Amino acid sequence: MLALTYHGPRCVRVEKAPEPRIQHPNDVILRVTRAAICGSDLHLYHGYVPDTRVGTIFGHEFTGVVEEVGPCVQTLQRGDRVVVPFNIACGTCFFCQRERTSACENTNPLSTLMSGIFGYSHTTGGYQGGQAERVRVPFADVGPMKIPDDLSEEDVLFLSDILPTGYQAAEMGDITPADTVAVFGCGPVGLIAQRCAWLLGARRVIAVDSIDYRLAFARCYARAETVDFSKVPDVVTVLRDMTDGRGPDVCIEAVGLEASGSLARDLLGKRLRLEAGSPVALNWAIQSVRRGGRVSIVGVYGPPWNLIDVGAAMNKGLTLKAGQCDVKRYMPHLLQHIRKGNLDPRALITHRVPLESAPEMYRLFAARTDGIIKAVLIPDEAG
Predict the structure, then answer these.
(1) Residues 253-281: what's their mean pLDDT?
(2) pTM, entire model
(3) Residue 352 Cα distances to 36, 68, 98, 320, 349, angstroms
């Protein structure tokens, strides 16, 4: 089969890879119909995620059609269309029983940090991803959700990750109708978080980024006020000035370890790699939010350490919430929002290309050019 594989920082190729096979009675094999490139895939692409091995197939956002079914699978059969959560969960462990599937104990047992994740290095279990013609899905009775007959793959594709992640980001902010919410980052997750902030009752939504077309997209798609941090002396001061001198009630950090905005942090964290990436956006969120405010963190950070302004968080009395998304918990609820038209994740798709064009899409996404927000890959067999 064809698959997008890793060959070192900034080097990915679409090439022949071994066909996946049933390895456990609870597995299914999917013929992939749609796969998306996620912003967090860029962390792998740039070489920031430890133990990303040559030959790894990327991709944790995908839909597919069931082609093979393990003998113990009870809920799926050949021909079913499904969308699959990015985190792999067993459904029975301590955390899964509490709907914390992102912390599943059994799908990544050598780690104390997180569950298994499709296509996201051996630090998350070494599972191959879905930017391929086929993919093995373990614990098939737990994660995959059948796609309703009246919806297309693209209608529900982002239920695999960015839609639940953006929603959880807003939910963790405990938003009230009086709140001003600032979202750092206008990538796909940030844009979804902005839309969901309105859905959860925000009074104002402010989007912070430095890429013109992404800020324009935020104004149109999310009806957000925007701040270009590259064109102001101090983004923290600007946000306070916009909010009666206090700061936003809620700040959502949807950027992660590749944040721009500080030459020193770029050098220390992204070039010399003496800390785990650049925590600029997270520190801005902590410094900007009002006293007693809430900071929601869904940007991806890795070990071992970062220079984060914990002192400001403590002295301001902030509530910080963070976490990988427990995707499965949100899928039915967000499916209803899609049906009702409250959320339109499909509108984020700016590029639809064959799987063979994936390396070029990675280059465009990394460079933030050609107006790219979200690229969807279509294997030849998907039609």
Answers:
(1) 78
(2) 0.95
(3) 9, 27, 37, 37, 7
